[in-house]
Automatic annotation (TrEMBL):
Matches recorded under PROSITE patterns: HTH_LYSR
Name of the protein: LysR family transcriptional regulator
Top-rank taxon, per record: Bacteria
Domain HTH lysR-type: 2-59
GO MF entries: DNA binding; DNA-binding transcription factor activity
Recorded family membership: Belongs to the LysR transcriptional regulatory family.
Annotated InterPro entries: LysR_HTH_N, LysR_subst-bd, WH-like_DNA-bd_sf, WH_DNA-bd_sf
Amino acid sequence: MLDVRRLRLLRELSHRGTIAAVAEALSFTPSAVSQQLSVLEREAGVALLERSGRRVALTPAGQRLVCRTEDVLERLELAAAELAEARHGPSGPLRIGAFPSATRAILPAALTVLDARYPGLEPLVSETDPARVADALRAGDLDVALLHEYDFVPAPTEPGLAVEPLCAEPMYLASAAPARTTGTGLSVLAGWSAAPWITATPGTLCHTMTVRACQAAGFTPHVRHRVDDFTTVLALVAAGQGVALVPRLGLVDVPAAVSLTRLPVRRRTTIAYRRGAGRHPAITAVAEALRGAVPAELAGGS
């Protein structure tokens, strides 16, 4: 009989690529992960891994087993959801991951509703970079999370996860003066091709979106500052330190000196959870509260 816990380790190895990364993500030692995978190979009766020095790759049999593992884990999530439905209402801890602007603009109202409707539920919120959400959900560190993508940076399909749309918001060019061009659409950005830019830190979706939007307008931005917090970004814009692209939910307490120009670029937010968990009462309750907390003009994901 194959052990589900060891199957999870194999699945994580297929996503993360190295035993060290699996060990770090799941709070094991590399030797413990390696040992458990060796036991799984003995249980399976076939080679699941190919080792070459420090590198490990899945054999064709290992890859097929990972595909079956995804189905097994989905069925386990469905079973857990059915058992939870038999209990009296959502209860217990629920780990929620969200990016900063959603944490500030959406989560407080949603949590207030959850407290009033489901006093037995204990939401636990952690600010989480969307780039880390998929791994955290698969590892069980989160139960539900908010992800976002941009028109220029579509989100990849993540194995083992299901998503549903929450909201779509426009992006704005923030500057300390009106736009320098009378053009429309992304041509507005061309008027700021020589200006310093403020972007998020490299590696984030927001940073990639800004660079790609500028490239679509015909130039590569000269980045002066790299800041992830939109309130700080707007303060720097007001101080004449550069221009930036900011989503609607990031426009909080906008300084009077900042001019905003709406662009034909959108950020879309989705609710993500492990595949099979969508019927879990706690997940359903959180999703409903999140949808109710979204400003009406942003509701939906189209």
